[in-house]
Amino acid sequence: MSDVEEAITQAHHEEWARVVAALTRRFGDLGVAEEAAAEAFATAVERWPADGVPPNPGAWLTMTANRKAIDRLRRESKRDDKHKEALMVYDREPPEPVGAIDDDRLRLIFTCCHPALAMQARVALTLRMVGGLTVPEIARAYLAQETAVERRITRAKGKIKAAGIPYRMPSTEDLPARVTGVLAVLYLVFNEGYLATSPDTDPLRRDLTVEAIRLTRLIRALLPNDGEVAGLLALMLLTEARHTARVSGGGELVPLAEQDRGAWDTTLIAEGHRLVRERLAAAAAGVAPGRYQILAAINAVHTSARDIRDTDWSQVLALYDQLVRLDPSPIIALNRAIAVAELDGPDVALAEIDRLQAKLADYHAFHATRADLLRRLGRSQESREAYDKAIELAGNTAETAYLTRRRDQLG
Protein backbone atom coordinates (compact mmCIF):
# COMPACT_ATOMS: atom_id res chain seq x y z
CA MET A 1 0.00 0.00 0.00
CA SER A 2 1.39 3.43 -0.99
CA ASP A 3 1.69 6.29 1.50
CA VAL A 4 -1.25 8.09 -0.12
CA GLU A 5 -3.44 4.99 -0.03
CA GLU A 6 -2.53 4.50 3.62
CA ALA A 7 -3.39 8.16 4.33
CA ILE A 8 -6.79 7.76 2.65
CA THR A 9 -7.50 4.58 4.64
CA GLN A 10 -6.49 6.29 7.87
CA ALA A 11 -8.59 9.33 7.03
CA HIS A 12 -11.60 7.12 6.39
CA HIS A 13 -11.12 5.39 9.73
CA GLU A 14 -10.64 8.63 11.66
CA GLU A 15 -12.82 11.14 9.83
CA TRP A 16 -15.83 9.30 8.39
CA ALA A 17 -18.04 9.73 11.45
CA ARG A 18 -16.96 13.36 11.92
CA VAL A 19 -17.80 14.25 8.32
CA VAL A 20 -21.17 12.47 8.36
CA ALA A 21 -22.06 14.00 11.73
CA ALA A 22 -21.06 17.51 10.64
CA LEU A 23 -23.12 17.25 7.44
CA THR A 24 -26.10 15.78 9.26
CA ARG A 25 -26.02 18.70 11.67
CA ARG A 26 -25.87 21.22 8.83
CA PHE A 27 -28.30 19.68 6.36
CA GLY A 28 -30.53 17.61 8.64
CA ASP A 29 -30.59 14.67 6.21
CA LEU A 30 -28.70 11.42 6.78
CA GLY A 31 -29.00 10.41 3.14
CA VAL A 32 -27.45 13.65 1.91
CA ALA A 33 -24.73 13.41 4.57
CA GLU A 34 -23.76 9.84 3.72
CA GLU A 35 -23.70 10.33 -0.04
CA ALA A 36 -21.76 13.59 0.17
CA ALA A 37 -19.22 12.02 2.54
CA ALA A 38 -18.79 9.05 0.20
CA GLU A 39 -18.30 11.42 -2.76
CA ALA A 40 -15.70 13.40 -0.79
CA PHE A 41 -13.67 10.26 -0.08
CA ALA A 42 -13.98 9.21 -3.72
CA THR A 43 -12.64 12.63 -4.71
CA ALA A 44 -9.73 12.14 -2.31
CA VAL A 45 -8.91 8.85 -4.02
CA GLU A 46 -8.77 10.69 -7.35
CA ARG A 47 -6.93 13.86 -6.29
CA TRP A 48 -4.61 13.08 -3.40
CA PRO A 49 -2.23 10.89 -5.45
CA ALA A 50 -1.62 13.86 -7.78
CA ASP A 51 -2.07 16.82 -5.42
CA GLY A 52 -0.64 15.27 -2.29
CA VAL A 53 -2.29 14.59 1.05
CA PRO A 54 -3.64 17.88 2.50
CA PRO A 55 -2.18 19.12 5.82
CA ASN A 56 -5.57 18.67 7.51
CA PRO A 57 -7.35 15.73 5.82
CA GLY A 58 -10.44 16.02 8.02
CA ALA A 59 -11.01 19.68 7.16
CA TRP A 60 -10.42 18.99 3.46
CA LEU A 61 -12.92 16.12 3.48
CA THR A 62 -15.54 18.10 5.39
CA MET A 63 -15.23 21.08 3.05
CA THR A 64 -15.38 18.85 -0.03
CA ALA A 65 -18.38 16.96 1.33
CA ASN A 66 -20.17 20.25 2.06
CA ARG A 67 -19.66 21.31 -1.54
CA LYS A 68 -20.90 17.95 -2.81
CA ALA A 69 -24.00 18.26 -0.62
CA ILE A 70 -24.88 21.76 -1.76
CA ASP A 71 -24.31 20.76 -5.40
CA ARG A 72 -26.75 17.92 -4.90
CA LEU A 73 -29.30 20.22 -3.28
CA ARG A 74 -28.99 22.66 -6.17
CA ARG A 75 -29.55 19.87 -8.70
CA GLU A 76 -32.60 18.67 -6.81
CA SER A 77 -33.93 22.23 -6.48
CA LYS A 78 -34.06 22.56 -10.26
CA ARG A 79 -36.48 19.66 -10.31
CA ASP A 80 -38.75 20.84 -7.50
CA ASP A 81 -38.18 24.59 -7.43
CA LYS A 82 -36.71 24.60 -3.93
CA HIS A 83 -33.39 26.21 -4.75
CA LYS A 84 -33.83 29.04 -2.29
CA GLU A 85 -34.87 26.67 0.47
CA ALA A 86 -31.82 24.47 -0.18
CA LEU A 87 -29.47 27.43 0.03
CA MET A 88 -31.10 28.56 3.25
CA VAL A 89 -30.53 25.12 4.74
CA TYR A 90 -26.88 25.28 3.69
CA ASP A 91 -26.22 28.83 4.78
CA ARG A 92 -27.95 28.87 8.10
CA GLU A 93 -26.03 28.67 11.34
CA PRO A 94 -25.83 25.18 12.89
CA PRO A 95 -28.53 24.67 15.52
CA GLU A 96 -27.68 25.15 19.14
CA PRO A 97 -26.67 21.87 20.77
CA VAL A 98 -29.36 20.21 22.83
CA GLY A 99 -28.22 18.29 25.90
CA ALA A 100 -25.43 18.37 28.42
CA ILE A 101 -22.66 17.36 25.99
CA ASP A 102 -21.94 19.07 22.68
CA ASP A 103 -20.67 16.26 20.48
CA ASP A 104 -21.79 15.78 16.89
CA ARG A 105 -21.05 12.05 16.82
CA LEU A 106 -22.97 11.42 20.03
CA ARG A 107 -25.97 13.26 18.57
CA LEU A 108 -25.59 11.17 15.41
CA ILE A 109 -25.67 7.89 17.31
CA PHE A 110 -28.78 8.91 19.24
CA THR A 111 -30.44 9.84 15.93
CA CYS A 112 -29.53 6.49 14.40
CA CYS A 113 -30.73 4.68 17.55
CA HIS A 114 -34.10 6.41 17.78
CA PRO A 115 -36.78 4.08 19.25
CA ALA A 116 -39.00 4.66 16.21
CA LEU A 117 -36.58 2.37 14.33
CA ALA A 118 -36.44 -1.41 14.75
CA MET A 119 -33.42 -2.56 16.74
CA GLN A 120 -31.79 -4.31 13.77
CA ALA A 121 -32.21 -1.14 11.70
CA ARG A 122 -30.67 0.97 14.47
CA VAL A 123 -27.64 -1.28 14.66
CA ALA A 124 -27.08 -1.44 10.90
CA LEU A 125 -27.57 2.30 10.43
CA THR A 126 -25.19 3.22 13.26
CA LEU A 127 -22.51 0.80 12.14
CA ARG A 128 -22.70 2.47 8.73
CA MET A 129 -22.99 6.11 9.78
CA VAL A 130 -20.90 6.20 12.96
CA GLY A 131 -18.61 3.21 12.45
CA GLY A 132 -18.09 3.77 8.74
CA LEU A 133 -18.48 0.05 8.06
CA THR A 134 -19.41 -1.10 4.58
CA VAL A 135 -22.56 -3.10 3.95
CA PRO A 136 -20.55 -6.35 3.50
CA GLU A 137 -18.76 -5.74 6.82
CA ILE A 138 -22.06 -5.14 8.60
CA ALA A 139 -23.54 -8.25 7.01
CA ARG A 140 -20.64 -10.36 8.31
CA ALA A 141 -20.96 -8.86 11.78
CA TYR A 142 -24.70 -9.60 11.69
CA LEU A 143 -24.39 -13.06 10.09
CA ALA A 144 -26.92 -11.65 7.60
CA GLN A 145 -27.37 -11.24 3.85
CA GLU A 146 -25.93 -8.05 2.32
CA THR A 147 -29.19 -7.27 0.52
CA ALA A 148 -31.10 -7.48 3.80
CA VAL A 149 -28.64 -5.13 5.52
CA GLU A 150 -28.83 -2.67 2.61
CA ARG A 151 -32.63 -2.64 2.84
CA ARG A 152 -32.53 -2.04 6.60
CA ILE A 153 -30.25 0.96 6.20
CA THR A 154 -32.27 2.45 3.33
CA ARG A 155 -35.56 2.03 5.19
CA ALA A 156 -34.09 3.48 8.39
CA LYS A 157 -32.84 6.61 6.61
CA GLY A 158 -36.18 6.98 4.89
CA LYS A 159 -38.09 6.66 8.15
CA ILE A 160 -35.87 9.25 9.88
CA LYS A 161 -36.52 11.69 7.05
CA ALA A 162 -40.25 10.99 6.73
CA ALA A 163 -40.90 11.12 10.49
CA GLY A 164 -38.78 14.23 10.96
CA ILE A 165 -36.67 12.55 13.65
CA PRO A 166 -34.46 15.37 14.97
CA TYR A 167 -30.68 15.34 15.03
CA ARG A 168 -30.15 16.09 18.70
CA MET A 169 -29.50 14.65 22.11
CA PRO A 170 -32.56 13.32 23.95
CA SER A 171 -33.82 15.26 26.96
CA THR A 172 -32.58 14.27 30.40
CA GLU A 173 -35.92 12.58 31.09
CA ASP A 174 -35.73 10.50 27.90
CA LEU A 175 -32.09 9.44 28.22
CA PRO A 176 -32.54 6.28 30.34
CA ALA A 177 -35.14 4.85 27.97
CA ARG A 178 -32.99 5.63 24.93
CA VAL A 179 -29.64 4.40 26.19
CA THR A 180 -30.22 0.62 25.97
CA GLY A 181 -30.26 0.62 22.18
CA VAL A 182 -27.25 2.92 22.03
CA LEU A 183 -25.20 0.62 24.27
CA ALA A 184 -26.06 -2.37 22.10
CA VAL A 185 -24.80 -0.56 19.03
CA LEU A 186 -21.64 0.74 20.71
CA TYR A 187 -20.84 -2.81 21.81
CA LEU A 188 -21.15 -4.01 18.20
CA VAL A 189 -18.97 -1.14 16.95
CA PHE A 190 -16.37 -2.07 19.57
CA ASN A 191 -16.51 -5.75 18.63
CA GLU A 192 -15.94 -4.94 14.96
CA GLY A 193 -12.81 -3.06 15.98
CA TYR A 194 -11.72 -5.79 18.40
CA LEU A 195 -11.86 -8.44 15.66
CA ALA A 196 -12.60 -6.97 12.23
CA THR A 197 -14.80 -9.18 10.08
CA SER A 198 -13.40 -8.05 6.72
CA PRO A 199 -10.24 -9.49 5.12
CA ASP A 200 -9.70 -6.11 3.45
CA THR A 201 -9.05 -4.15 6.67
CA ASP A 202 -6.59 -4.29 9.54
CA PRO A 203 -7.34 -7.30 11.77
CA LEU A 204 -7.68 -4.94 14.75
CA ARG A 205 -9.41 -1.62 14.05
CA ARG A 206 -8.47 0.60 16.95
CA ASP A 207 -10.24 3.55 15.35
CA LEU A 208 -13.49 1.75 16.14
CA THR A 209 -12.56 0.52 19.63
CA VAL A 210 -11.23 3.92 20.67
CA GLU A 211 -14.29 5.73 19.31
CA ALA A 212 -16.67 3.29 21.01
CA ILE A 213 -14.87 3.85 24.31
CA ARG A 214 -14.95 7.64 23.82
CA LEU A 215 -18.69 7.66 23.16
CA THR A 216 -19.38 5.32 26.08
CA ARG A 217 -17.43 7.66 28.37
CA LEU A 218 -19.64 10.53 27.21
CA ILE A 219 -22.78 8.54 27.96
CA ARG A 220 -21.40 7.65 31.39
CA ALA A 221 -20.93 11.37 32.05
CA LEU A 222 -24.62 11.82 31.22
CA LEU A 223 -25.77 8.80 33.26
CA PRO A 224 -23.16 8.26 36.00
CA ASN A 225 -25.43 5.97 38.04
CA ASP A 226 -26.45 3.65 35.20
CA GLY A 227 -24.97 0.22 35.95
CA GLU A 228 -25.02 -1.05 32.38
CA VAL A 229 -23.22 2.03 31.05
CA ALA A 230 -20.51 1.48 33.67
CA GLY A 231 -20.48 -2.24 32.87
CA LEU A 232 -20.04 -1.69 29.15
CA LEU A 233 -17.26 0.83 29.72
CA ALA A 234 -15.48 -1.62 32.04
CA LEU A 235 -15.89 -4.42 29.49
CA MET A 236 -14.43 -2.27 26.72
CA LEU A 237 -11.50 -1.10 28.85
CA LEU A 238 -10.55 -4.60 30.00
CA THR A 239 -10.75 -5.87 26.42
CA GLU A 240 -8.88 -2.92 24.90
CA ALA A 241 -6.14 -3.33 27.52
CA ARG A 242 -5.04 -6.52 25.74
CA HIS A 243 -4.83 -5.13 22.20
CA THR A 244 -1.02 -4.89 22.00
CA ALA A 245 -0.70 -8.61 22.81
CA ARG A 246 -3.41 -9.87 20.46
CA VAL A 247 -1.52 -10.03 17.15
CA SER A 248 2.00 -11.44 16.74
CA GLY A 249 4.79 -9.80 14.77
CA GLY A 250 3.96 -12.20 11.96
CA GLY A 251 0.38 -10.99 11.79
CA GLU A 252 -1.20 -13.96 13.56
CA LEU A 253 -3.91 -13.74 16.20
CA VAL A 254 -2.64 -14.63 19.67
CA PRO A 255 -5.31 -16.32 21.84
CA LEU A 256 -5.75 -15.30 25.46
CA ALA A 257 -3.91 -18.36 26.76
CA GLU A 258 -0.77 -17.47 24.80
CA GLN A 259 -0.69 -13.68 25.26
CA ASP A 260 2.17 -11.86 26.95
CA ARG A 261 0.34 -10.50 29.97
CA GLY A 262 3.19 -8.13 30.67
CA ALA A 263 2.21 -6.28 27.50
CA TRP A 264 -1.31 -5.55 28.74
CA ASP A 265 -2.20 -1.94 29.57
CA THR A 266 -2.26 -1.85 33.37
CA THR A 267 -3.87 1.61 33.49
CA LEU A 268 -6.90 0.45 31.50
CA ILE A 269 -7.10 -2.74 33.56
CA ALA A 270 -7.04 -0.79 36.83
CA GLU A 271 -9.84 1.49 35.64
CA GLY A 272 -11.88 -1.47 34.42
CA HIS A 273 -11.42 -3.35 37.70
CA ARG A 274 -12.47 -0.28 39.67
CA LEU A 275 -15.72 -0.04 37.70
CA VAL A 276 -16.39 -3.77 38.19
CA ARG A 277 -15.84 -3.45 41.94
CA GLU A 278 -18.33 -0.56 42.03
CA ARG A 279 -20.93 -2.70 40.30
CA LEU A 280 -20.21 -5.69 42.56
CA ALA A 281 -20.85 -3.44 45.55
CA ALA A 282 -24.16 -2.40 43.99
CA ALA A 283 -25.05 -6.07 43.40
CA ALA A 284 -24.26 -6.83 47.05
CA ALA A 285 -26.71 -4.07 47.97
CA GLY A 286 -29.45 -5.80 46.00
CA VAL A 287 -29.10 -4.20 42.54
CA ALA A 288 -29.15 -7.04 40.02
CA PRO A 289 -26.37 -6.76 37.40
CA GLY A 290 -27.16 -6.61 33.70
CA ARG A 291 -25.52 -8.29 30.73
CA TYR A 292 -22.61 -5.90 30.30
CA GLN A 293 -21.80 -5.92 34.00
CA ILE A 294 -21.55 -9.71 34.01
CA LEU A 295 -19.41 -9.73 30.87
CA ALA A 296 -17.14 -7.13 32.50
CA ALA A 297 -16.87 -9.30 35.62
CA ILE A 298 -15.84 -12.28 33.46
CA ASN A 299 -13.14 -10.15 31.86
CA ALA A 300 -12.04 -8.95 35.29
CA VAL A 301 -11.44 -12.58 36.31
CA HIS A 302 -9.32 -13.16 33.20
CA THR A 303 -7.29 -9.97 33.61
CA SER A 304 -6.72 -10.63 37.32
CA ALA A 305 -4.85 -13.87 36.62
CA ARG A 306 -1.09 -13.48 36.23
CA ASP A 307 -0.99 -16.67 34.17
CA ILE A 308 -3.66 -18.60 32.28
CA ARG A 309 -3.17 -21.43 34.82
CA ASP A 310 -4.21 -19.05 37.60
CA THR A 311 -7.62 -18.34 36.04
CA ASP A 312 -10.51 -19.02 38.39
CA TRP A 313 -12.57 -21.04 35.89
CA SER A 314 -15.21 -21.94 38.47
CA GLN A 315 -15.92 -18.23 38.94
CA VAL A 316 -15.99 -17.71 35.17
CA LEU A 317 -18.49 -20.56 34.79
CA ALA A 318 -20.67 -19.24 37.63
CA LEU A 319 -20.78 -15.84 35.92
CA TYR A 320 -21.70 -17.45 32.59
CA ASP A 321 -24.47 -19.39 34.32
CA GLN A 322 -25.80 -16.06 35.58
CA LEU A 323 -25.45 -14.52 32.11
CA VAL A 324 -27.26 -17.38 30.38
CA ARG A 325 -30.32 -16.65 32.52
CA LEU A 326 -30.31 -13.07 31.20
CA ASP A 327 -29.22 -13.80 27.64
CA PRO A 328 -29.80 -17.43 26.56
CA SER A 329 -28.21 -16.82 23.15
CA PRO A 330 -26.22 -19.57 21.40
CA ILE A 331 -23.08 -17.39 21.34
CA ILE A 332 -23.19 -17.01 25.13
CA ALA A 333 -23.69 -20.78 25.40
CA LEU A 334 -20.66 -21.30 23.14
CA ASN A 335 -18.47 -19.08 25.31
CA ARG A 336 -19.75 -20.83 28.44
CA ALA A 337 -18.67 -24.17 26.97
CA ILE A 338 -15.07 -22.96 26.84
CA ALA A 339 -15.14 -22.60 30.63
CA VAL A 340 -16.81 -26.01 30.91
CA ALA A 341 -13.89 -27.53 28.98
CA GLU A 342 -11.43 -26.20 31.54
CA LEU A 343 -13.40 -27.59 34.50
CA ASP A 344 -15.08 -30.76 33.22
CA GLY A 345 -13.00 -31.63 30.18
CA PRO A 346 -13.23 -31.14 26.39
CA ASP A 347 -15.58 -34.12 25.93
CA VAL A 348 -18.27 -32.54 28.12
CA ALA A 349 -17.84 -29.17 26.42
CA LEU A 350 -17.98 -30.74 22.94
CA ALA A 351 -21.30 -32.39 23.74
CA GLU A 352 -22.66 -29.00 24.79
CA ILE A 353 -21.55 -27.06 21.72
CA ASP A 354 -22.62 -29.78 19.27
CA ARG A 355 -26.16 -28.99 20.38
CA LEU A 356 -25.62 -25.44 19.05
CA GLN A 357 -24.67 -26.47 15.51
CA ALA A 358 -28.02 -25.74 13.89
CA LYS A 359 -27.97 -22.15 15.20
CA LEU A 360 -24.25 -21.44 14.68
CA ALA A 361 -23.49 -23.34 11.47
CA ASP A 362 -22.32 -20.14 9.72
CA TYR A 363 -20.39 -18.73 12.69
CA HIS A 364 -16.65 -19.28 12.35
CA ALA A 365 -15.99 -19.21 16.12
CA PHE A 366 -18.28 -22.21 16.60
CA HIS A 367 -16.16 -24.31 14.23
CA ALA A 368 -12.90 -22.94 15.65
CA THR A 369 -13.95 -23.86 19.19
CA ARG A 370 -15.10 -27.28 18.06
CA ALA A 371 -11.81 -27.84 16.21
CA ASP A 372 -9.81 -27.06 19.34
CA LEU A 373 -11.88 -29.41 21.50
CA LEU A 374 -11.55 -32.21 18.93
CA ARG A 375 -7.78 -31.60 18.80
CA ARG A 376 -7.57 -31.92 22.58
CA LEU A 377 -9.49 -35.20 22.37
CA GLY A 378 -7.07 -36.58 19.78
CA ARG A 379 -9.70 -36.71 17.01
CA SER A 380 -7.37 -35.16 14.43
CA GLN A 381 -9.29 -35.79 11.22
CA GLU A 382 -12.50 -34.32 12.62
CA SER A 383 -10.49 -31.44 14.05
CA ARG A 384 -8.96 -30.73 10.65
CA GLU A 385 -12.40 -30.63 9.04
CA ALA A 386 -13.65 -28.20 11.68
CA TYR A 387 -10.59 -25.99 11.18
CA ASP A 388 -11.22 -26.01 7.43
CA LYS A 389 -14.78 -24.78 8.00
CA ALA A 390 -13.63 -22.11 10.47
CA ILE A 391 -11.00 -20.86 8.00
CA GLU A 392 -13.61 -20.74 5.23
CA LEU A 393 -15.93 -18.57 7.33
CA ALA A 394 -13.40 -16.34 9.10
CA GLY A 395 -12.83 -12.94 7.51
CA ASN A 396 -10.17 -11.64 9.88
CA THR A 397 -6.71 -12.17 8.37
CA ALA A 398 -4.93 -12.59 11.71
CA GLU A 399 -7.47 -15.14 12.86
CA THR A 400 -7.25 -17.02 9.57
CA ALA A 401 -3.46 -17.21 9.93
CA TYR A 402 -3.77 -18.59 13.46
CA LEU A 403 -6.40 -21.18 12.52
CA THR A 404 -4.35 -22.29 9.50
CA ARG A 405 -1.26 -22.87 11.66
CA ARG A 406 -3.25 -24.83 14.23
CA ARG A 407 -4.77 -26.99 11.49
CA ASP A 408 -1.39 -27.64 9.88
CA GLN A 409 0.09 -28.67 13.22
CA LEU A 410 -2.25 -31.66 13.19
CA GLY A 411 0.00 -33.25 10.56
Automatic annotation (TrEMBL):
Signal peptide: none
Presence of the UniProt keyword Metal-binding in the record: no
Keywords: Sigma factor, Transcription, Transcription regulation
Entry's Gene Ontology BP terms: DNA-templated transcription initiation
GO molecular function: DNA binding; sigma factor activity
Pfam families (alphabetical): DUF6596, Sigma70_r2, Sigma70_r4_2
Domain (DUF6596): residue spans on this chain: 178-278
Superkingdom: Bacteria
Domain RNA polymerase sigma factor 70 region 4 type: 109-159
Family under the similarity heading: Belongs to the sigma-70 factor family. ECF subfamily.
Stated name of the protein: RNA polymerase sigma factor
Source organism (scientific name): Actinomadura barringtoniae
Lineage of origin: Bacteria, Bacillati, Actinomycetota, Actinomycetes, Streptosporangiales
